[in-house]
UniProtKB/TrEMBL annotation:
This is BRO1 domain-containing protein. InterPro entries: BRO1_dom, BRO1_sf, RHPN1_2. GO terms for biological process: negative regulation of stress fiber assembly. Residues 11-125 form the BRO1 domain. It comes from Arachis hypogaea.
Length: 126
């Protein structure tokens, strides 16, 4: 999903499309009653050969929102701040990151499966 060979804006756009897909399928798979809920696989960032899986769509959405906020911050940091255009892009990217982190605080209320996605930890990011 997150290919390193794509530019940051394209990687961000892929995550936005994935987040929209998660929002669309969420009502179709009630996680508590579905006999075959979707499985979300996560890979270890430090050791990509290790992975884990889980069925919590809210946790998956929260992780996507966190990554979207991180991409916004990364895009802002990669801008050329010596030009007016670079400054505008950086400001827009930081506004975008703040938006995704705000949405993350709402999703964290539903996810709350891990200590790092509690509401208080998500609010620190805003």
């Amino acid at each position: 999903m997150l290919r390193d060979d794509l530019p940051l804006p394209m990687r961000r756009d892929c995550l936005i499309r994935y987040f929209k897909c998660l929002c669309m399928i969420e009502p179709l798979f009630p996680m508590t009653t579905s006999p075959n809920p979707p499985i979300f696989v996560w890979y270890n960032a430090f050791n990509p050969h290790q992975d884990s899986s889980q069925h919590n769509i809210h946790l998956e959405k929260a992780s996507v929102l966190f990554n979207l906020g991180a991409f916004g911050s990364h895009i802002a940091l990669s801008c050329d701040l010596t030009t007016l255009q670079g400054q505008r892009i950086a400001i827009n990217a930081l506004h975008d990151a703040a938006y995704w982190f705000l949405i993350l605080t709402h999703e964290a209320e539903k996810a709350s499966a891990t200590i790092d996605l509690t509401i208080s930890c998500a609010q620190i990011l805003r």
